Amino acid sequence: MEYFLTEQQKLVKDIARKIAEERILPVRAELDEKEEFPWAIVKDMAAADLFRVFIPEQYDGLGEGCFALCLTVEELSRACCGVALTYAADALGSLPILLYGSDKQKQEYLPAIAAGTKLAAFGLTESTAGSDAGGIRMTATLEGDEYVLNGTKQFITSGGEAEIYTVIALTDPTRGARGASAFVIDKGTPGFTFGKKEKKLGIRASATRELVFHNCRIPGENMLGREGAGFIVTMKTLDSSRPGVGALAVGLAQGALEAAVAYAKQREQFGHPVSAIQAVQHMLANMAMELEAARALVYAAARTVDSGAKDFTEEGAMAKVFATDMAMKVTTDAVQVFGGVGYMRDYPVEKMMRDAKINQIYEGTNQVLRNVIALELLKRKALRR
Ligand SMILES: Cc1cc2nc3c(=O)[nH]c(=O)nc-3n(C[C@H](O)[C@H](O)[C@H](O)COP(=O)(O)OP(=O)(O)OC[C@H]3O[C@@H](n4cnc5c(N)ncnc54)[C@H](O)[C@@H]3O)c2cc1C
Prior knowledge:
By secondary structure, the chain is of the alpha+beta class. It contains 11 helices and 10 strands. It has helices at residues 7-24, 28-34, 39-47, 65-79, 81-100, 103-115, 230-266, 278-306, 313-338, 349-358, 366-379, and strands at 120-123, 139-143, 146-157, 164-170, 180-186, 192-197, 208-219, 223-224, 268-269, 272-273. A 4-stranded mixed β-sheet has the order 1-4-5-8. Strands 2-3-7-6 form a 4-stranded antiparallel β-sheet, with helices on one face. A two-stranded antiparallel sheet has the order 9-10. Helix 7 (230-266) runs antiparallel to helix 8 and helix 7 (230-266) runs parallel beside helix 9 (313-338). The longest helix is centred in the middle third of the chain and has 37 residues, at 230-266. It is globular and about 80 Å long. The mean pLDDT is 97. The structure holds flavin-adenine dinucleotide (FAD). Residues 89, 122-125, 130-131, 155-157, 200, 208, 358, 361-363, 365, 367-368, 371 line the site of flavin-adenine dinucleotide (FAD).
């Protein structure tokens, strides 16, 4: 399928593919096995200017936006979804600064993110607040011109590894969701430590960890946007980042499809390759069709984000849900095409199937996002298009 990429988009995609094939593919099984954070690859991505892709030019980025970010994520995820997530989560952690930071905050944080010398992470979830993000308990209490942070964030991607954290906390616990505000916090701030490091089913090259705040004092100027706007910051951040989760899924499924096609051509049963069996051919055909439909939807959603449109909640949610459900199915079918060896760690598809699952869960579960899509649909006076 031709997506009419610009020369710059093609270049970014080619660079990401080169890093994926030369640096990620050879070590992905080892990173998964050892649950190791891919610092060496992060450094290569930084040297190749990949972290500049989604940062505006005035802050040392390439200003290529959400679509080029998705192309990059897709190429990285084709080799390893866990490594690709580190890149995508850096963009997620940067978005509150990009969307709501003052020029001073942007000057302070974005050039280091663009250079890839500092990774960013986003902290919303707590043990009491997952789908119901309004249930957060972490507090930010104003004392003089400082905020004092107390609470624990759970399941934070790149927790402990990132240097820059954008976090949502209650500045007025009596007002519920309307009493939440967004902050940017540096690793190393006294009172900010890291708790439990999770051991996961998949994406094991990605770090997932608790952020623990105990009487952590930060300057008042670390607030992003205005007081009480924490959930607006959250919603806009997630709306902008969800096409990126769709891209993680598309890349993952692409890798699984390619592996399944290659194996089906080579594995012989009944005196011929299993690719000659129509039942297998139809599985491959369905995988390819559903993958391409998801890719088109993810690209369209990303281009909508870049268009300057005010509201793309529905587009982002549709792309995320459709692509991640597709990737779960395609990776499961890839294991099926491989037969018994597909279940073994000697081949890459069992890892892909394990990696796929999380994409249906984070950044809004696919059930919650179906609620969101339905809500958008039902509140309209007339159907669009
Ligand atoms: C590996 C990993 C990385 C993560 N990274 C981050 C991160 O970087 N930053 C961050 O802030 N968070 C992160 N998260 C948290 C993630 O976003 C949440 O786990 C997710 O939003 C779901 O919340 P929960 O786990 O509490 O599930 P729950 O909300 O407890 O949901 C349990 C079940 O109930 C369903 N459900 C709940 N409410 C509804 C509803 N209203 N309608 C329909 N179904 C519903 C859910 O779909 C799910 O099936 C991460 C999680 C994981 C596992």
